[in-house]
What we know:
With 264 residues, this protein is α/β, with parallel strands linked by helices.
Amino acid sequence: MNTQFMKVLAINSLPANGNAGMKMVMHVLGTRVIPVPSLLLTGIGSLSGFEKFPIPFKQMLSGTLALAKRREEALIVYIGYLGNADQISIINESLQQYKDIVKYIIVDPVCGDHGKAYVPREIIANWGTLIESADLCLPNVTEAALLSGYTENYQKKHAENYLKAFRKRFPNTALLATSIEQESYLINRLYKDNTIVETKHKKQAKNYGGSGDAFASYLINAHFYKTLPLEKAIYTAGEAVRKAISYSFENGQKDLMLSFTTDL
């Protein structure tokens, strides 16, 4: 598949303050992006007092796909943070309607971290139908647990059980489990075609919101546009995020900064 001129239809949140969501996608992928915001926010979720504002999502997505088909675009679809559970059925219906121009689907089922859910249960319950239609899914361990039915009593020591349960529930979707903690490292682990590939990255001194969005964007860029094999693209994306976190922390930044790192 020649991906050099494919566009990325990106569905994600668009915050004003803070760096996450669509801001990361558009920074890394630039004019390759066809953005469809899932909601607008005054700031990322970690900022006290942030507000959310809905958009006419169904009309925006269907109209955007209709124009893309008229222009004979070939699309990589990337789905991140969603505003509500109804958006999942809207996306599923739209992707089915325009399946002739959708060539690859990547989902980052944003719903929790550090053992806690931070979206409504309805979103977690509905994510499964999108994951089943995806080619590649990028959950962290908490999200793998939540999406496998472990909504309570999360324990870090049971990470392997959560990943095993996720693979059992979604056997036909390639799993890229992100940020698996291992001593002073974070592991990204790909399960695909009965093989397991791991990449290891040094833990940084601070966590930043938006690092998952940046990772997915760098991964898409490295694999589809730099044409690196998926395994090498995963490592390359992980290192790009590690460097961005290191740069941001060392320079006292409140937000994850990509502009002054070596982008891929």
